[in-house]
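We both want to read discrete structure tokens more fluently, so let's practise on a single case. Would you write everything just below, so we can both look at the same thing?
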Amino acid sequence: MQPIKDLKPVLAALFSMLFWSFSFVWVKIAYQAYQPLTVVLMRLCLSVVLIVLFAFVIRRLQIPSRKDLGIFILLAFFEPFLYFMGESFGLLYVSSTVAAVIVATIPLFAPILAWYFFREKLTLMNYAGLFISFLGVSIVVMNRDFSFSASPKGVLLEFCAVIAAVAYSTVLRKLAFRYNTFSIIAFQNLIGILFFLPFWLFFESAEFFSTPFHPEAFRAILLLSFFASTLAFILFTYSIRHLGINRSNTFINLIPVFVAIIAWFVLGDQLTLQKMTGISVVITGLFLSQIKKRGKRLSTERAEGNG
């Protein structure tokens, strides 16, 4: 039974990365009619409705205590607010693939905060896996001469999203053992709406009300709301609870790989031998990064269970 138990958080991490990979395509479709803040605000509002209704029906909705309210506000500030500010506006200036490879650097930064706050360590094999995985990502998204062009403004905005995501994972660890997943996602998105609302009212509300209804763009927002803003966060929170911050964030290296494959199916982009080689390297690095000594893993699980 132990292998099955270990497999569930791994599958949760994989599917959360798949849904977030699709979001890079859905956002581009939504931009055909709506501006970035409008897309984010609509997807968050729909996500809150979905998750609150579901959590209420199954009687799993927990109201945050007063002492944890500040942590929830900090969580929502990093993600969805700061992360989506960086990612959404960054996608106006760079391609989905370039954005995806920048997002893939999250595991390279996450161990610093994880070590500082939780003394969560990685073995030499884990670090080797991270390096190899990121090398594979580079093979997927770069030209043969190891160059690609991208807007400096877009790159900077996407790196803001990376910093926000690392901080989010660290803050999330403080709540993951006190609240169930549904409650965390519901309240982080609800508070996130309050962060975004003033900016949307000032910058984009007038254009939104004058824009004709766009079925394809609205459908993309519905998909973003259910899969990227709700289900993916639920699965990723479950993964962090069982695998830890560093091992869960390692799966983010798969996002550019998924984006390349999705672009092949949906957009007709060519899946070259170079890209297929990069995919193989990423998967190899991913497996290496998951290697842990059994004794150390059991001790970590006991410590997290007591948390």
